[in-house]
């Protein structure tokens, strides 16, 4: 954010006892201390939902029933009040969404990854055929993306 916007938010936060403007990269403590998140379409929303807490979004690009999405500022107060009440259906939708997005929240993901690596080394390493060189496919992808870092239009520094 530009400095002017940051300063406006800092000033606004100072006007309320229960509002804080934080400039930390460590969001976990903030998530634990807060009751509700208010955001737009930031990916941090999904990190917040892992704490089983509601999020109010403004004009979210992917609104769904695990969020309280509003499209006009006039609905903000009502949306925040709803979030603070933690209605059972909203909390269940958050739980179901998080189960779908990240079902392995048992703290054993690293162990599963290591087991998979060990399994690959024991059973598959050196046994998988290399993919054939597919120049036509590469050309189509580069053409679609407009990416040709060579030839007469390519400039080196």
Automatic annotation (TrEMBL):
GO terms for molecular function: CDP-glycerol glycerophosphotransferase activity. Pfam families: Glyphos_transf (PF04464). InterPro entries: Glycerophosphate_synth (IPR007554), TagF_C (IPR043148). One of its GO terms (cellular component) is membrane. Transmembrane segments: none annotated. This is CDP-glycerol:poly(Glycerophosphate) glycerophosphotransferase. The lineage of its organism: Bacteria, Pseudomonadati, Bacteroidota, Bacteroidia, Bacteroidales.
């Amino acid at each position: 954010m530009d400095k002017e916007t940051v300063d406006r938010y800092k000033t606004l936060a100072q006007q309320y006892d229960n509002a804080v403007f934080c400039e930390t990269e460590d969001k976990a403590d903030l998530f634990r201390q807060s009751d509700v998140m208010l955001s737009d379409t930031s990916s941090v929303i999904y990190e917040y939902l892992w704490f089983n807490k509601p999020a109010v979004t403004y004009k979210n690009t992917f609104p769904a029933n695990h969020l309280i999405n509003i499209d006009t500022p006039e609905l903000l107060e009502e949306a925040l009040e709803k979030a603070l009440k933690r209605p059972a259906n909203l909390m269940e939708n958050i739980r179901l969404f998080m189960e779908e997005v990240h079902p392995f929240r048992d703290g054993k993901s690293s162990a599963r990854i290591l087991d998979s690596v060990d399994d690959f080394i024991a059973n598959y390493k050196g046994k998988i055929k290399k993919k054939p060189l597919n120049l036509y496919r590469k050309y189509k992808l580069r053409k679609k993306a407009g990416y040709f870092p060579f030839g007469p239009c390519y400039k080196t520094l």
